[in-house]
Write a structure and sequence with these properties.
Number of strands: 9
Radius of gyration: 22 Å
Order of helices and strands: HHEEEEEHEEHEEH
Strand content: 15-25%
Mean pLDDT: 89
Oligomer: single chain
Structural class: alpha+beta
Helix content: 25-40%
Low-confidence stretches: none
Shape: elongated
Amino acid sequence: MSGQSVRYCAVGDIKAMMPDLNWGASYDAIFESLSMRASRLIDYETGKAPGSFANTETAEIRYFDGSGTSELWIDETPALPSVIAVATDGMNYVNWATPPIYFTGWPYNAISLGVPFLRLDLDIFRSSEVIWYKYPRSVKLTSVWGYSVRPPDLITQAAIMQSIRWFKRGQAGFADTAANPNLTQLSYTSRLDPEIAEMLDLFKRTTI
């Protein structure tokens, strides 16, 4: 499945958040479309590639410049690379077997914390190789890339909320303001719901 078509919430999730009506299947196609579009908005707002929060694609190869140190910053990945190949001379790739080459992913407790690995650290005390050779594209990694293989709960919640928000605005003709007859007041639409924005801020990667 292409990342462009990955949805972070299901139609049933959206209906469950609006339990007062018996929806049936009348709006399923609309909810599916809104869910997909909300998911792409989440990717955009967090600076991720499409489908990064539910990447079940097969592993792919990506290239990285060697750092010349024992630490190598990489793209987000929910699992350690299955294959590591390094061009120690800058041209010819050799697969690094483990062991005798030892490395750890950072953050060290990424899997239990539910966050992706961002760096590979060679064990300078045990490994037969202690630096990532400093050549352009000298490191070739095979992995499943993205933030996670399943959407974190807050990402699912944000997708549900945004889908409902668009649905309700569509019912109001996408007006900028809507009257609430029960409260005799006007509500105004903003660019992005503040609560959704706060959720998504937790998943934005800070570049140093």
